[in-house]
Design brief:
By secondary structure, the chain is mainly beta. It has five helices and 55 strands. Helix 2 links the parallel strand 1 and strand 2.
Amino acid sequence: MTGGPGQTRGCPLRKKIAGQKTRMNSRCAVFCLLALAVLGFTAPLAVADTGPGLKRSPWQDIRSYGTLPAALAAIGPAPATLLISDRQTITTDTTIPAHITLHFLQGGVLAIGDGVRVSLNGPVQAGAFRIFDLASTGVVLFNAGSVGEAPVEWWGAVGDDRTDNVWALRAAVTSVNETYGNPALILGPGHYRIGGPIVIHKNNLTLRGVGHRISKLKCTAAEAGLVLDKGSRQVLYSTRLEEFEVDGNSLARLGLDLVNTSETTFRGVSVRGCGTGIRLGGAVSPSQCTFTECVVADSRTGVKFIHAVNPIFDKGNFWNNTTVFDFDTAYAPIFTNNWIEKFTTAFLFSHLQSKGAGVAVPTLVIRNNYFLSTDGGRTFDCRVLKAVGDNGGQTVNIGPVVFEGNHLHLTAARYIAEIAWGRLFAAGNRLLLKMKENHLFAGVNTRAWFKADVPAEPERSPVHLIFQDNAYPAGTTIQEGAGALVTGVGAQGPDWGTANRVLGAEVQGPVLTWAANDRTPSVKLGNVFKTANTVPTAIKDFREGQAGQKITVIIGDAHTAVGFQGTSLKGNGGKDWKAGNGDWLECLYDGTQWYCSVHRTAP
């Protein structure tokens, strides 16, 4: 058909079809390119050199070569990514060079035989699935720069709460322990059951989960748990454990066992359901172990110190339903800014004990912690600190023990601190205890802030007690005066005033009412007292005063007189004073006599 002037020749239908084909061909070309790209990424094939100017593809499939050694030999020095898509058995020591990247697909596994070492110098790419199958003495090594993080699933670990992962985790730790690359081992979400101990013995190792309530090592035997021990009396340095839980499952004897470690860091680690949550001690004392935002709960003992140097528990650690510390020998532990709830054993700190010649515990700092033990009205025997100076006759120095700025909300407590100091003594023993600015919350029935059993020979074994600015508000019952129950021959002996410094300015507490009709009332560690006499009573002395102590006596009755003639009380011009209800008396003790001024409310 021929068109007229100005018309286009040809069939209009044919032109339309031709136009559609052109657009379809363009779309098909784009679709094919995308399909080839996807297929090339997931299952690329080896491309051989076919002529000048052609370069080998960077993606190689191991199936094109049959074996790993054959693939490495064929690839040569050119950078390449080798896809591991099936099971490869390695029977001789093999090194993957740094220019080869191993990219594992699901189902791709290196099966490494007994005694065989596979060293990975290049990058490794894989998801959280198994890529290594190691015989009992086979090992895979990561060298510097090859891997930053290694999921434990690479060795066959499964967090399904059914599989025993002890062998897989041991293989993972061994691989990282013996490598130079120090990749972090990663515990994914799930419960990884372990039927035996997992031992970390490599410096600078990091074991990290994704959250202590999400990643869990679940013990299924008494000896299961995590052990840090380099062995042969060597010290393990700079280990980091982060964001996972060790669940003793009410079976494990120990959750974390730090045998010989130094500069170990724990952050966000939880230990539950163990006989002892954490144990520090071995042939070489653990030192500089730091715990932050950790949890120890539902264990008979929270932390057991066999030997430890300067352990630090700071910033947000949480204890629940456990004894917190059980000391054997420790040097300068620090316990600050922690929350302790429902501690149900007899003591919070059951021992601070030093054994052996010259062994010292120079400091114990307990500062800015919150203690809460209210459990349905149960009564607890909560001795927050018990310091024991029993060392077989050897010289011991304990102190300063600083208990400062703590808040205690207890159902009941016999003593907040107990100093059992007087079992066996030697020249040079000493103890310094400082209790300052602590707050005991209302509603607590406590016998005494601290009980001190001091030595019979304080000139040989001095005890220095400072009790300052502690507060116990209305509703709190303190049975023993201002909060101290001091016993032992030395407490009453002539050296008590010089062996201890308890100044009136340092003692603050409630107004303490004396027993009625006492002519020599006690002023033991108090500074404000009130009389309540029911019959005429002439006070002639104050018992158990300390040199430098200041007291104020409020006259709360109409029967009290104060004798200034022939007594240890000096004042009022040497004349006896008949006080009236509402009058008051201020006195300062120099160790021998009381120097007093009298004050009347009525003209």
